[in-house]
Amino acid sequence: MNTVLNHLTVLLADDHAIVRMGFRLLLEGAGAAKVIEADSGETALSRYAEAQPDVLVMDISMPGMGGLAALVRLRSRHPAARVLMLSAHHDAITPVRALKAGALGYLSKRCPPEELVRAVHQVSRDQRYLDPELAQSVALAHLTGDADPAGTLTDKELLVFLQLAQGRSVNEVAHDFHLSPSTVGTHLYHIKQKLNVHNAAEMTMVALRGGFIEA
Q1: Are residues 87 and 167 in the same domain?
Q2: Are residues 52 and 89 both part of a single domain?
Q3: Domain-embedded: residue 33
Q4: Do 122 and 190 fall into the same domain?
Q5: pLDDT at residue 1, rounded to an integer
Q6: In the predicted model, what is the mean pLDDT of residues 92-120?
Q7: Residue 29: which domain range?
Q8: Is pLDDT above 50 for 158?
Q9: Which three-class secondary structure string do you get for the chain?
Q10: Which residue has the higher pLDDT, 173 or 133?
């Protein structure tokens, strides 16, 4: 296994330093030529532009922009980016959203170490990779569309929902996504209607139950 990732440059985005260290050792042990680290979605975007890595391995749940929003923004700037998304959660709708947003792979952090190496290898070759334990539930979510209440949201509504659920204000979200506050307000209205929530606290509860954010 020590040459599987030979000559690859991998950008690793996770807000936990000890997790990054473990993944770095694993990837370097599998032959990665260079592993670059980022601790947020914002940092991942800037590091990607600087290094143009072969693969970006990015956690879904991070402070600030978060992995899913960073993925959408990255793919708009770098359509050929090869991204493997990681998550500590086992819900079905998040992988569906990540793959729809342009990720080539999705993997649970609970996977065996060799699974991560295999996933990075396949994604580096422009091949899709989905955690075997999630494959069936993701397929069902594609068919039914009802794996989670947030599945009713559009992609833009989901991005706004994720930010507001983490306590950010309408003005902050508008600034981050280069939207007008009134546009964000319109998204918020639709989010409340679709999810049957009335305030930020209820949105946060939906996000926690769906595994979009960590407590």
Answers
A1: no
A2: yes
A3: yes
A4: no
A5: 47
A6: 87
A7: 9-142
A8: yes
A9: CCCCCCCCEEEEECCCHHHHHHHHHHHHHCCCCEEEEECCHHHHHHHHHHHCCCEEEEECCCCCCCHHHHHHHHHHHCCCCCEEEEECCCCCHHHHHHHHCCCCEEEECCCCHHHHHHHHHHHHCCCCEECCCCHHHHHHHHHHCCCCHHHHCCHHHHHHHHHHHCCCCHHHHHHHCCCCHHHHHHHHHHHHHHHCCCCHHHHHHHHHHCCCCCC
A10: 173
